[in-house]
Amino acid sequence: MTSETHPNAVAETAPVGFQEHDHQTCVKTALVSAEGRCKEEGLRLTPVRRKVLEMLLQEHRALGAYAILDRLRDEGFGSQPPVAYRALDFLVQNGFVHKIERLNAFVACSHPGASHSPAFMICRKCDAVAEAQSASAKGVLGAAARAAGFEIERTVVEAEGLCPDCTEKA
């Protein structure tokens, strides 16, 4: 089944996150999409959850839970860590946000609601994050897993390097 025939599949495209784009439209479209999906699936996109998603969409870089908590406090949403962690748990569980393990931080998903295996390119200078598609089940890792009788359920691919902006500055 290809991305054209499966509604939740993601077509292989260029990484999302480093290129120039209409950022305001990007954020607005993603929020409208998240609100629509929550309504369709009976999920509660509370004001705190929506604000956390909006913060991550605004950045196109990973933010740690305490940075998010600081921003939530500044916006009047409270200052207790569970406020941020509960919102992040909901957003990760429902595919709106990914956790970047290397940074112990979070980034908005470029393809929310789609069935995909993301791969992240993380700039070691500015922490910008771009999301691309990974085909771990089809590549070398998939072949090794099949040979071992292992069934891959989830992968996290994170590559560290320099984004185009930092490469130009170097």
How does the SSE layout of this entry go?
Layout: H1 23-41, H2 47-59, H3 65-74, H4 81-93, E1 97-100, E2 105-108, E3 118-123, E4 129-133, H5 140-148, E5 157-161, H6 164-169
Parallel strand pairs: 3-5
Antiparallel strand pairs: 1-2, 3-4
Q: Widest sheet: strand order?
A: 4-3-5
Overall radius of gyration: 17 Å
What's the SSE pattern? HHHHEEEEHEH
CATH topology: Arc Repressor Mutant, subunit A
By DSSP (H or I, 4+ residues per run), the number of helices equals 6
Q: What is the strand tally?
A: 5
Architecture (CATH level 2) name:
Orthogonal Bundle
Compute the separation of the termini in Å.
43 Å
What is the CATH class designation? Mainly Alpha
Domain count: the total is 1
Backbone shape: globular
Main beta sheet strand tally, sense and closure: 3 strands, mixed
What is the CATH homology-level superfamily?
Winged helix-like DNA-binding domain superfamily/Winged helix DNA-binding domain
Beta-strand content? 5-15%
Poorly predicted parts: 1-13
List keywords for this structure.
Arc Repressor Mutant, subunit A, two-stranded antiparallel sheet, 6 helices, three-stranded mixed beta sheet, 170 residues, alpha+beta
Characterization of this structure:
The structure is a single chain. This protein has 170 residues and is an alpha+beta fold. The chain has one domain: Orthogonal Bundle (Arc Repressor Mutant, subunit A). 41% of the residues lie in helices and 14% in strands. It contains six helices and five strands, in the order H-H-H-H-E-E-E-E-H-E-H. The protein has helices spanning 23-41, 47-59, 65-74, 81-93, 140-148, 164-169; strands spanning 97-100, 105-108, 118-123, 129-133, 157-161. Strands 4-3-5 form a three-stranded mixed sheet, with no helix packed on it. The termini are far apart. The relative contact order is 0.15.
